[in-house]
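Weekly modeling sync, notes
Attendees: S.R. (lead), two postdocs, one rotation student

Agenda item 3: backlog of single-chain predictions. S.R. asked that every request posted to the team notebook include the full sequence so nobody has to chase files. The rotation student volunteered to paste the first one in as an example of the format we agreed on. Action items at the bottom.

Example entry:
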Amino acid sequence: MWKNVLSLGYFYIASIYGLYLVFTSAKLATIIFAIVLHIAGFMGITAGVHRLWSHRSYKANLPLRIILMLLNTLAFQESIFNWARNHRVHHKYSDTNADPHNAKRGFFFSHVGWLLIRKHPEVIEKGRQIELTDLMEDPVVAFQKTHYLKLLFPICFIFPTAVPILFWGESFSNAWHIAMVLRYTITLNTAMFVNSVAHLWGQRPYDKFIQPAQNLGVAIFAFGEGWHNYHHVFPWDYKTNELGNYSTNWTALLIDMFAWMGWAYDLKTVSPGLISARVKRTGDGTHDVWGWEDRDMSLEEKLEATVLNRKTME
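Predicted structure, as returned to the notebook:
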């Protein structure tokens, strides 16, 4: 896939120059603007094409779907239709030859190598069997699929470059290399860390027999997508995490905010009983309830807590 090799090669090299410009000549407004674009675009991936369209873990009204579609276009991660198709294949045939970014083929392949070579024949075969009717029945997804290139260039390339130049007099080189190239490269690699790092390193408290793992670092940088062992066991949970801690799950915060506004609804989650049963059946023993009966809680602590409780009751 020489087109991908050359284009990604350019973005990686040019992003190094963009990082140099951040510390030498860029205006602060340009740096802040690039960060905002990265966060916005990544939410188009996590809250949009991943949790909404790929897994249908919640529902969104038309204005929210349009916003998430535009943010997804800004992220430049293929159309919603193609991304969701690949992701559904990834979940159904995870870490096999039918997985587009099979982690068993190594870190480099699962991170970026899968974009540089043609798909394994099994990926193509299984991809044709995946149910995608719901995607094509969504007019927002169908519109983006039909007009993807027409939307991509103004939203992902022109807008991030033009705004710094027109509004605060940034140079073209700084605007292009920072707000467009560096921002896109960071967004791309952050997403790829979920495919690579979170499939190779971490704990597996919900299912020790699968590759995906709980990885705090990925969860922080990928706005909650790093709790990957949980996500592969319970892919319909809109939080992609048992506890839904906002500090490591900005995406859940965004969805909850839109739910409060009435724009997101039918948020799906998992009952504590189902989680507990799965942990006991297939977990690796690292599950931590973070409270009473924590596996590291000593007998003395339990006795003291019981005594304090009795005193309170008296």
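Discussion: group reviewed the output briefly. The CA atoms of residues 168 and 206 lie 50 Å apart.
Action items: rotation student to repeat for the remaining queue; S.R. to check formatting next week.
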